[in-house]
Structures are given as C-alpha cells and as structure tokens.
Amino acid sequence: MMKKCLLAAVLLFPALAIAETSIGIVYPLKALQETTAVKSKMSALEKELGPDEEKLNKLGMEVQELQAKMQKEAMTMSPDQQEEMKTRGQQKMLEIQSLQRKLQGRAQATEREVMEEMGPKFQQAIEVVAKEKKLDLVINAQAAVYVGDSAVDVTEAVSQQLNKMK
C-alpha cells in the first residue's frame, strides 16, 4: 500500500509542478519592431533606399510601356525596330534585377545589424520581464501550438524594457 501511494505521488508530482508554472509568451519580431532603436534604423533604411525604390518603380513602368507598345505596334514595326525594342526591354529588366538585388542585400544587411545589436538585449529584456512578472517560462509565441488564457503575453513589456536599455 505504501509503495502505491509513493508511486502515485511520484507520478503526480510533475503534473503538479506544471500546474504551478507560470508561462509567458512573446512575439519576438513584434517586440523588436516596436522599439525606438529598430524604428530609427528602419526609417534610416527607407531614406537610404528611397531613391533606388523610385528608380525601380520608374523602370518597371518603362518596361510595361515598352511591352504595351510592342503589342500595339508589332504589326507595323520593322524587324529591326522590333529587335531594338526587345533589346531595350531586356536591358531594363537586367537593370531592374540588379537594383532589386542591391535593395534586398542592403535590407538583409540591416536586418543582420539589428539582430547582432538587439539579440543580446532582447534576451536580457526577457529575463528582466520574466523576473518582474514572476514567470517560470517565456516561449516564442510562434513556437506554441496552443496558447491558453493563463499564458501572459509579455511582448509589449519586452519592447518597453528594450527601450529602457542602452
């Protein structure tokens, strides 16, 4: 009889421990995007890339105009004129692709810079918030299969803590 009680207690102990665990969830990307530092970096990036984005849009419109003109006037154009228009269109497409790679590369570089700078701070902010809210566990919300009502969303608190950190 004693062994059965002891066995039942051992089996129930982990369930009781889990029931007592307070859990927080965090949306890391949202927490970072809401910080002053990240907003500032994104604003600077937009200013830096603005002229190239405008050029990209302009090139896209020029390609569309060339395609429309080709469709509309193909029957009346000479083969040389058609070839010249195709060549111009291909050149513009190559320029578009090059500009897209440049913009994408710069955006990825900025993302890496942000993560290198903010990654350790993010971890510290989570630890501070977890202690303040007396949480035993904080998990990435995207990794959770189910989040019940008892879980505490600490995303905003983490963003606020990050803003306090220098």
UniProtKB/TrEMBL annotation:
Residues 1-19 form the signal peptide. The keyword DNA repair does not apply. SUPFAM superfamilies: OmpH-like. Transmembrane segments: none annotated. GO terms for molecular function: unfolded protein binding. GO terms for biological process: protein stabilization. GO terms for cellular component: cytosol. It holds the Pfam family OmpH. It comes from the Bacteria. InterPro entries: Chaperone_Skp (IPR005632), Skp_dom_sf (IPR024930). Residues 71-90 are annotated as: Disordered. The keyword Metal-binding does not apply. Belongs to the Skp family. This is Outer membrane protein OmpH.
